[in-house]
Specification:
Blueprint (H helix, E strand, L loop, with lengths): L2 H4 L12 E2 L2 H11 L3 E6 L3 H17 L3 E10 L5 E10 L10 H15 L1 E6 L7 H15 L5 E7 L6 H10 L8
Antiparallel strand pairs: 1-6, 2-4, 2-5, 3-4, 3-6
Length: about 180
């Protein structure tokens, strides 16, 4: 799965695998998340999920927030692997400046019923707690939907492979990505 092509419809040569969210990647993301963030997950089935993700992404961009798409890797009873899509919306504007956290909280309150989303708000956290917060978010999502799947971990999109891809993802789409 690659959010870049799957959801955004951007033609790219970036065929790198998803990046595991571990302590090293969280340290790279921490500059963006240290001012607070919101986790937003879609509750719909796969057929409706793509359209809802596109609409949610457009709302995030329209409200001038930066975001990072994340994917919860799950394995069901017969061994099939699938990914739950969600966003980490950082308390940063397009210029990568911290915002008033109230604006992000109001945004989360506004879109939660609009998309029937699972939302988790995190104003004060530490770098070390980010992974456990995201893991708990996906595990709660599975329990809340009555799914007996095994959660295996969280993944991020790979970093851009070209200047044009970086420009589109950073400047046009407000995406946060890590450099490995």
């Amino acid at each position: 799965m690659n959010f870049i092509e799957e959801i955004c419809g951007i033609s790219t040569n970036n065929k790198q695998p998803l990046v595991l969210l571990d302590e090293m990647t969280v340290k790279n993301l921490w500059n963006c998340l240290q001012h607070g963030f919101v986790l937003i997950g879609i509750r719909e089935s796969n057929c409706m999920q793509k359209e809802l993700i596109k609409k949610l992404q457009a709302d995030i961009i329209k409200n001038d927030f930066r975001y990072c798409p994340i994917f919860g890797c799950c394995v069901n009873g017969n061994g099939s692997v699938y990914y739950l899509s969600a966003f980490v919306v950082a308390n940063l504007n397009k210029a990568k400046e911290p915002c008033d956290f109230t604006a992000l909280r109001l945004f989360a309150d506004e879109i939660s019923p609009k998309y029937r989303q699972q939302v988790s708000i995190c104003e004060n956290s530490s770098c070390t707690s980010v992974i456990s917060l995201i893991d708990a978010f996906f595990e709660d999502w599975l329990k809340g939907n009555g799914l007996s799947c095994l959660y295996k971990g969280c993944y991020l999109n790979p970093p851009p492979m070209s200047y044009s891809e970086r420009y589109i993802r950073d400047v046009k789409m407000n995406e946060i990505f890590i450099n490995i």
